[in-house]
Protein 1
Amino acid sequence: MMPKNVIYLLVIALAINIASCGSQYATGQPNPLSSTSYPLNSIDKHGQTAFEAYPRAKEEAFRWNEEAILYQIPPTRLMESNLGLGGKGPAGWFFMFKTPDSPVEFYIEIVDGALYGKTEAQPILFEEPSYRLKPIDLDDNILDSDMALEAYFRNGGEKYFSKHPDVNIDYRLIHLEGADHPVWSIFDSADLVNALIHIDAVTGQVTQDPFEQVINP
């Protein structure tokens, strides 16, 4: 899923707040899955889309640093595994923020519109990575997670779900230097190495693995 030449040193323990909850943020956009034979809630257990969860994450990120910029939406279950949570918590959204002049990364988890946890981490590099993350501007005509899922259904996803009715899906959104657009990758949470599909987050078209795009163009 990602070159394995980076590990992370957790600087602050994950702060969990299970009791708190908040209202969801509505985007006003129609649900593109409403015409499919699969109701959204039975497919995507996140409870809200990535962009619906983002305003609360942004608010918390600005409390951490007023210059914080979104750099990644990593897979939820992968982050929970990295943080020793066992991947058994509610299906929330993780957001990774940082500032361009610092190696410290700030991770926030939002569940149903509420802050569920946050932590700082700093990458320890064994060698210079062959890729660099670019900031992600969600106002730049980028497809939300439900739109990426709808694109997957247009490209074989319905067949996969008919054979794996109990699948739990996970997402990743990244933009790498050298790539034209950010890319949504959709995973079966049982396999966070091999994506089910990669979707260009601007055009909605099937695309190449984002790391392969910049490492082996």
Protein 2
Amino acid sequence: MAEMQPFNQLVGRLLVYVAPYGEPEPNINATPGANWTRFGATDGDQVAESAGDLTLHYDDDHQGPVKSHLPQEDLTFKFRLVNMSLEQFSRATSNVSRIIATTMGGANVKRLPLKRGKTPTEYALLFRGEADSPEGNLPGQYYAPRGVLHKPFTRTRSRTARDGIDCIFTAHEDDAQIEDNRLGWLTVQV
């Protein structure tokens, strides 16, 4: 149905939310609850990518492979955040609890240490689109119950591009889920 008029070309940008690790997936047709934080506005492409190559096994009786298995598997989400608050920037680079409120020359300020630290904060991630279902102009969402934002940050300001930071979220296996769901899943409304 998504390839039929008027449903083709309706897929728009995704909204990115983070929550503490272990936060359950919100309902597809409801605003995420209080523990979910809208991570920020995105610019450009948003990518959900599964990676991992099959290992092929051969024997002396056949020229082609006789068996294959997937020894490693990765699930990553890539997106660019723009117009970030200091709290959003801190989630992308380290941990929002590291922000220090202080005064400087009589002015109230917030300060974020730029050293990222050894242990990244684990989050649950929600990648949500209002028209992201292959069944038509309906919502869809990717949910990863556990993972980290791991890309070292580069923040660029220029006259021709918006101030932003590229983010990569790598899902970690969550043993609290059944085997097939340990890296996350895709939910679409039908």
Protein 3
Amino acid sequence: MQQKKFLQLYGPMFAVIWVGAFIVLVTVKQKGLDLPTFWGDILIEKAGLTLYLPFTSASAFGAFAVAFYEMWRFMKRF
């Protein structure tokens, strides 16, 4: 598959899922649920304040959702 067609097909879906996962992960972390951080995530805990920016975790959610969607779409044929 050509790169341009691939990005046109899956880019918007990945972007929407990435933004949604980013918001959910930041919200859940602020509510007190202890989430593991991955390489690329930023976690700063200082004087009772927490800053969590889950770049890699949100990307993992996006990639998983896009792959799962494509698998579901492929399996619908059978």
